[in-house]
Write a structure and sequence with these properties.
Elements (H helix, E strand, L loop, with lengths): L1 E6 L27 H15 L3 E7 L8 H11 L6 E4 L8 E6 L4 E5 L4 E3 L3 E3 L6 E3 L8 E3 L6 E7 L4 E8 L11 H31 L4 E6 L9 H5 L3 H6 L10 H8 L9 E5 L4 E5 L2 E5 L9 E4 L6 H4 L2 H10 L5 E4 L3
Parallel strand pairs: 1-2, 11-12
Antiparallel strand pairs: 1-17, 2-4, 3-4, 5-10, 6-7, 8-9, 10-11, 12-15, 13-14, 16-17
């Protein structure tokens, strides 16, 4: 089975108010890319991936007039994708939903949010709730909320294997609204605290599943990684390392995250590419992960970043290489595994 995660930049801008794809000359949310160009590129990428299930980060919006599920299923129909069924969980107000697009012949899936007592840590609320956590060591817990509540999926493969997935898009650390250097530092530190708190909350849910013996896949855009910025030194660990639980008896595993954490020198894997206008250059970063539980590591897992330059097959296929660059500022990550 092939499981994928894919952050599609401003996917919602590609649909009209009736959730129909708009392959026209209007501008998408991507710089110098029309809706037609981005949609065609996405059709090529999704077709090439040929995944059984894709956790879509920044999926089309759900509101009073629009439906994430309808938009994604219309997109799948337009390009003849076998991933033709869509699933969402708790919606948000960012126009960037979390959704699973999957092949109903390969697996069944349902939104299955959890809450309850975790053996060592106490109560862990549902992801649409509130989580009290002391962020600044003043003995007064702050109230943490997810701007994009993770999508919890209970899945069963056609072969009968049961497993769980948690789709994640953690809060960005960008210091939006800052006008001075001091404001940049203050907002960055505050955002980092909130992001790490969300990682702690997520890790506690992970620990509950591991304790219950649930095969688990945590996948998505964690907007973070070992060594990614200078604020990691202030807090000791990155959010990815918290979710992985490296010091615990049952850590989650992703080879790219492990490489970034242990190899401080030399080339690093990357899943995204952003243009830095003021420096007239591109920045590559490892932001997207597929983390698996220890039991799943025994099922012949194989990871792949569909990078247009670093993956030989993508690079040697000009149509796919260009599609990956046009479709989004992130690249898909896939996991092939026997489920």
């Amino acid at each position: 089975m092939r499981i994928a995660t894919y952050n599609v930049e401003w996917f919602t801008n590609l649909f009209d108010e009736k959730d129909r794809p708009q392959p026209d000359g209007g501008w998408s949310g991507r710089r110098d890319v029309t809706r037609e160009q981005q949609l065609e590129a996405l059709g090529i990428v999704f077709t090439a991936m040929d995944a059984d299930a894709v956790m879509i980060i920044e999926a089309p919006d759900t509101n009073r007039h629009r439906s994430t599920v309808a938009a994604l299923e219309n997109f799948a129909q337009l390009y003849g994708l076998r991933t033709r069924a869509a699933l969402t969980g708790f919606t948000n107000d960012t126009q960037q939903e979390l959704a699973l697009l999957y092949d109903p012949d390969a697996l069944t899936a349902r939104h299955d949010p959890q809450s309850g007592l975790e053996a060592q840590r106490g109560w862990v609320p549902r992801f649409d709730g509130e989580f009290p956590l002391d962020l600044d060591v003043d003995a007064a817990p702050e109230t943490i909320r997810f701007s994009k509540p993770p999508l919890e999926v209970a899945a069963r493969s056609a072969a009968g294997g049961e497993f769980r997935m948690i789709g994640v898009h953690l809060k960005s650390k960008a210091p939006h609204g800052a006008r001075t250097r001091d404001e940049v530092i203050r907002i960055s530190i505050a955002n980092r605290r909130k992001q790490l708190a969300q990682a702690v909350w997520l890790r506690r849910r992970v620990e509950a599943h591991l304790a219950a013996g649930d095969p688990l896949i945590v996948l998505g855009d964690l907007n973070d990684g070992p060594g990614l910025d200078e604020y990691e030194k202030l807090f000791g660990r990155s959010g990815v390392e918290i979710v992985m639980g490296e010091a615990d008896a049952a850590p989650l595993f992703d080879p790219h995250a492990r490489q970034a954490a242990t190899q401080k020198m030399g080339a690093q894997p990357a899943t995204s590419r952003f243009f830095i206008a003021e420096e007239n250059r591109y920045l590559s970063a490892l932001l997207d992960y597929i983390l698996i539980s220890p039991d799943l590591r025994e099922k012949a897992p194989r990871w792949r970043i569909w990078h247009p330059f670093d993956d030989p097959a993508c690079y040697r296929t000009p149509e796919l290489r260009q599609a990956l660059l046009t479709a989004s500022d992130h690249y898909p990550v896939t996991l092939d595994i026997d489920l």
